[in-house]
Write a structure and sequence with these properties.
With 246 residues, the chain is an alpha/beta fold. Helix content is 52%, strand content 16%. It binds uridine-5'-diphosphate.
């Protein structure tokens, strides 16, 4: 299993296609190793400049895929080899397909109580082979130890964490050593989509690589992300220029 890595603003991103992730999953199960799927987008890269925990999570994740067209473009401009966007929600679907085919169990952690419960029900209907072993919302006041015990007691093979960034990366970075699942994925707002609470961008936005713009404009809380784009581009190019002069 060979993976090539490149750096954007000092953050590692793997040159991965969806088929690489699908292929590697069986290997991690067969070898009882933890597989950590991390979505990398411009916001997370900017965040990891200041947040050591997020940076460390990314550095230790086994699969850092370009879940953001900004990352793909930056790779192209800096002569990298990342050719395609791999959307986190599509990776989650692919993990669920794997679980359905192999009778694996999942745990959903994060989102509002009614959202995560509905996402669990919908996943069970859409992927009948998947064992939905448990779920827990991301707003309850349980201590982390209790949350970890609850997840481990279900013996889930896969843990999806949807606490938003940087919470989900920080939480996994701190507690993964105590968690017994095999596959871990940070999934942001994916439970909102699986529950039907939020709609994914229309196909035309996905096909034209403008899903980020649709999501930013349709959710006032994400509007500031538009302004992070020029910052990411400037910082990324300056960083690359400095690196190539060394
Ligand atoms: N969330 C949570 N607990 C928190 C903050 C957020 O469970 O304390 C959930 C929120 O309900 C949503 C997800 O985390 O389901 C984050 O979604 P968002 O779209 O902000 O994440 P992104 O995809 O941008 O990382």
């Amino acid at each position: 299993m060979t993976k090539k890595v490149e750096y954007i603003l000092d953050t590692p991103v793997d040159q991965l296609k969806m088929s690489d992730i699908e292929r590697d999953m069986s290997w991690y199960f067969d070898h009882h190793q933890k597989m950590v799927l991390a979505s990398i987008n411009p916001q997370i890269i900017l965040m990891s400049e200041k947040n050591r925990c997020v940076k460390s999570f990314i550095e230790h994740a086994t699969h850092r895929f370009a879940d953001g067209i900004g990352v793909v473009k930056m790779s192209k401009w800096t002569k990298g080899r990342i050719k395609e966007r791999v959307a986190g929600i599509d990776v989650m679907a692919s993990v669920l397909e794997f679980c359905a085919a192999n009778k694996k169990s999942i745990f959903l952690y994060g989102a509002k109580p009614s959202v995560v419960a509905q996402a669990a029900r919908n996943i069970q209907l859409d992927y009948p082979g998947v064992i939905v072993a448990g779920w827990l919302d991301g707003y309850q006041k349980k201590r982390s130890g209790e949350v970890i015990d609850m997840i481990n007691k279900t013996h889930s093979d896969v843990l999806f964490v949807a606490l938003g960034s940087p919470k989900q990366e920080e939480w996994l970075q701190r507690y993964m050593p105590q968690l017994n699942a095999t596959v871990f994925q940070t999934v942001g707002g994916s439970f909102d989509v699986y529950s039907g609470t939020v709609k994914r961008a229309p196909e035309v936005f996905i096909k034209t690589n403008l899903e980020w713009l649709y999501r930013s404009v349709s959710n006032p809380k994400r509007l500031n992300r538009i302004f992070q784009v020029p910052l990411f581009v400037t910082k990324g190019l300056v960083w690359h220029l400095k690196q190539s002069k060394q």
